[in-house]
Amino acid sequence: MKRVYVQEQWCLACHLCEYACAFVNSGQKDMSKALKGVKINPCIRIEERGNISFAVNCRHCEEPLCLKSCISGAISVKDGVVHIDQEKCVGCYTCVLACPYGAIMPANSGKVMQKCELEMEGGEPACVAACPNRAIVFEER
């Protein structure tokens, strides 16, 4: 199965992946209307440590620790994609603590927790499509 992989040596910390993620998850058709004047809350984020930058996102693990730790049964895997059911999530943060990648975070917009759900844009995740330097790739390894 294809997964999102990070190649930190190519990351420019341009944050375009964050904007693409926020836009595709907004449900709107016009990016400027969806994001202008809005504090974005993407499911991917760029971390910068010294002169290294890299994307932090869900790796959709084969055996997700977040799923094993979820006390409400809100996390499931369908077709290799780890998904959070917002109706079942109680916001206990055990998934946040269990994720070895730091990819699950509290949401700001009507959701309890959020993470990458592999929102596709033209056959690949929106963050991958937006990355000008191929620092984020969607491939099978």
TrEMBL record:
| Ranges where the 4Fe-4S ferredoxin-type domain occurs | 80-109
- Specify one Pfam family: Fer4_4
Per UniProt, which keywords does this protein have? Answer: 4Fe-4S, Iron, Iron-sulfur, Metal-binding
Q: Which domain of life is it from?
A: Bacteria
Does this UniProt record's set of keywords contain 4Fe-4S?
yes
Q: Which GO terms describe its molecular function?
A: 4 iron, 4 sulfur cluster binding; metal ion binding
- Is Repressor among this UniProt entry's keywords? no
The UniProt entry, under PANTHER family, shows: PROTEIN NRFC, PROTEIN NRFC HOMOLOG
- In Swiss-Prot or TrEMBL terms, this protein is called 4Fe-4S binding protein
What is the organism of origin for this protein? Candidatus Avidehalobacter gallistercoris
| Phylogenetic placement of the source organism | Bacteria, Bacillati, Bacillota, Clostridia, Eubacteriales
